[in-house]
Fold each of these.
Amino acid sequence: MTIKPAMKDAFFAPARLCLFALGVLLFMLPTTAFAQSNGNGSIYSRFGLGELKTLASPQAQALGGGGVGLRSLNYTSLSNPALWSDQVLTRFVLGGNYHETNARDARGTQSELVAGTLNAVQFSFPIYTRKLGFSVGYHPYSLMNYRVVRRPETPFQFGPAPTDTTAYTVDYEGRGGIQQISGGLGWRVSNALSVGASVDALFGILEEARETTMGPGFAPINFTDATRLSGFTGTVGALLTVADLFADDDALSLGGSLMLPASLDGRRVRTLGESLSRDTIGTVVDGSVDLPWRAQGGLTYKPNNSVTITADGLYAPWSTAESTFDGASEGPSQFPIGGSAFLTDRWRVSGGVEYLPAGNDPSASYFGRAAYRLGGYYEQTYAAPVAGESIDVRAATAGLSLPTRLSGTRLDLDVEVGVRGTTSRNLVRDIFYGVSVNVNIGERWFQERKLR
């Protein structure tokens, strides 16, 4: 039997896609493992579950990170399951990030982190073209990655006499995070309305350690908390689109999504000893963490096929979060989730502009078919280390989307520059830089081939 070229393409297209994605993932794994082994990032990831991540799509990331109302045939956003209804091609998206953070306090003390991480992995396909679509994806929900050294001015008194003192240092370190896997459907009810829903699994380990060193002649004392959390929640979304609003070829889209509250079951293993070995002295505490709901809204306006303007907002009442692990330990977990002054409500606003010179013209020049993006965002994080002083983030984003020889496949390059926190009130200011590379592969699957 002879397989004709058309049949061969239909058979081997999925295999080519999977092998390419696997190769890119294996190439990135050493960088990811190296980053996770070095806890020297933002001190503010010490609070709650760590630094919360906001990931939507490579397109939305360069536009400030929202994209809740951003319709596109080339991207399937993680921020709103209703957007999954517009799919035409089967897509696989894989992205990585290089990140650098420079921290400084009021005394001029500095620290630096250089790390690479995996951004997201997403697979999606249309069940009915531009009517019903499916998507499953992975991305980090939060990241804990810090190291803090404290040198108290008052020596430690270890004996009954006032002269029985010695200087000591305390080294705090945290690493780990919560991961998220989401899968669901998007359904286009009519030309104007789309709805969607997903099931979201949250899981991960948060590990914090405290090492106390009291000088020569004393062995260091190590205390470690490793908290494993897991649970499920869900996200619902909707999208309303109005065409020909102010002109014959314009469109206005309004999107919204709601991530439901989640209760994560957990187990904390505490160890105490002269090393970080888990077989010294260990105790196990079971508990739970209740996460708040999160609402997102977005507005996208396309005056023509070349320009896209977005504006988005996010809100989550983290001041209502609760945890039965509060006060369960005298170890390094100094900032419990529930019932403390160290967490506050989180909100975020963002916006951006995309310019695609060629519009929908596939015969235009290469750089005419490339997309150019600018954006920014302002966020009040949920970390409040000092009462009445929330930690804010201000950042600018930009991106370049390059077409490839493979129809439906694009290479996206995104950059981010921002400032987090302040040096007032004994706090720390972070200046961070990030570069993301995302491969967005699109091919037609499940298409019946006709024999000639």
Amino acid sequence: MILKIAFAQLLSGHTLQEQLEIGREACIAAKNKGADIILFPEMWSDGYYIPQDKKALEALAISADNPFVIAFKDMAKSLEIAIAFTFLEKHDPKPLNSVILFDRRGDKKLNYSKVHTCEFDLEKMLSPGDDFYVTELETAKGSIKVGSMICFDREFPESARILMLKGAELILAPNACPMEINRLSALRTRAYENMLAIATCNYPEGQPDCNGRSTLFDGVAWLRDEHGVRDMCVFEAPSDAGIYIAELDVDMLREYRQNEIMGAKYRRPDRYNALTNN
């Protein structure tokens, strides 16, 4: 099974309606390019704008049943494409940085909120999410187990590890920051140590503090019938805005996971008490 993943590496608009229209065009373009899944950058509903005034922030937050959200649900069904879109989610006491994944029938399969919020910066205004989730996503090509982590989550090995332990084969990772060698290396490491694929969608250059370079790491570090190692980064976008398509060979990943040694195979959780006690 070869899944086509679209990255909506786009500049944001200035209103919720503009975000909806740009998003709609992106979904149509992704479908026309043959994508099975389209992924948006972090907090698409307002272009990752986080006012430090509580009332201003709450005015931007929307609920999961807002017409903006329902519009993406309807697009997923009408276009028959899975859509992972992101938004500032209304929540008490503080809003959440969230992603919702709709399948090609418009059914909500995942609603994840960023666990590792950047409390040292603007995201001190947000509440952290409460857990990591994995779902079975059915596409026209077949099913795949999908989880999500958002931006700063990638810096914590526990994020991807928990998703792997829950069965994830693919992690969808919305992003809003400069992607440079160290952050890209963190994504590579999470894919390598867990034998899973990670698709990261960033805003392009021109969006404040962002530079594109959306990526797909497929999690396959070597093949038994080929000499040497391979580059797990099977796609890296340029800095420019655009709808980019990357292909994930799910069958190759599954065979690799079955035969190789990383992931959960040789863990010793009984020796990891320091992780759970601190």
Amino acid sequence: MSKFAIGEQVENVANDHESGAVVAVFPTVDGSFRYAVDTEGYGALQFFAEEKLTIAVSRRGAT
């Protein structure tokens, strides 16, 4: 079972905590998962391995 679901907000922990929404989940032949993420500011999908992502931390009200 995948760690993240379509529609969840995630952050890329490996690269300046880019965030975005999961739009697709793909199982790999070795049993892990890759995620297509619509990252904010890029206008294109980026693909990440599960270990590179975490649930996005809400930054509302931060100054």
Amino acid sequence: MKIIADRAALMEAANLVAAVVPARSPSPALSCLKLTAEKHGGVGTLTVAGTDAEASLEMTLTQVDVSQPGVAVVSAEKLKQILGAVAEGAPTITMELDGDQCKITGSHAKFRIFAFPAGDYPPFPDFAAAIGSATGPGAARSTFIHSAGGLLALVTRTVFATARETSRYAINGVLLKRDGRKIEMVATDGRRLALSRSTLKPQPAGGGAGGSGGESTPVSCIIPTRALNLLTRLAGDPEASVRIAVTDNRVFFAFYDVELKGKEGKDASGGGQSPRAILSSTLVEGTFPPYEDVIPKDHDKKATTGRDELSSAVRQASVLTNEESRGIRMTFSGKNKSVRLSSRAPELGDSEIDLGLTAYEGEDLTISFNPAFIADALRAVPEPEVMWEFKASNKPGVMKVGAEFLYVIMPVNLPE
């Protein structure tokens, strides 16, 4: 293998893909990146790939001149360090595989690192086979296309609410449900629940699952939090497309730089364009909790307020909280159309912040929440206003933004 690559593009790809690579592994090859240089019709590409045997990421660069196609398997950490150490004034770097050594040259600097045999690297999940097969263990049960911006909104509005440490593995990920053009993601840690909805663009009829897109095929699966956090770094242009494929035990996200209008052939491949990145992950095993039962449906108190104003008030009130008193009290007044946020920490002091409401319906109410849980949700939504719905001080509160976002949060008990 011998290539000349754009240094900045290669460094960005190496940093992203290295996030998948485990820091320590009994298999030395798993701590490496696999670089595959190819040339088709005079056009060169370099695919940077990494995996930890559960999640995998492949990114394809076109800013490369391929003199000799080939495969190099090199340490992810050392490649990142070398690309970062090469002076920024060097627009390109040269990489050449010579036996078991990889030579890297750029801006008066030369490096030589050992390479592993390509055959030692584990095989990657095959996205093309998943969407191209109608049957078989690796065939997609459902495939569909969504905009990168729409998918990113679904993820950012839910992934923050997943459980971090629990023996209930099913809530360590985000539930993805797709039925026709309706798609939603749900996450919970047992004390709060975030639900985000979206609508897919109409796609040509025809089908079933597999390569045809499976618009009529409902699917439900639980995606690990780690994979979705990486997805947020890959979204790119919000108008571009992401093709999602779900198999029996894996999910694929293929990112394109164009809008895809169909399911197969040239339209589905972006006029012949290959995906710039393919992220895949094993699915979380288990059954997601019946989240519909958690969402209250009998609220009789409603408050509307500005997102930024509420965020600022919560931040101020949370200053005087501690581990023993980790909560803020919210007192809603219909007469004054306002809410008072207060907190108290023994031996520290207390706070009161008054905030006007855009609207309030129902009787006055006092209810307490963990301020971090409120702040997390407010950071996840860009809309200028949010609505709260309540029943009683000991019942869950619900934050809503239109019909696309719903957030259930359990109250906390605070000493008087």
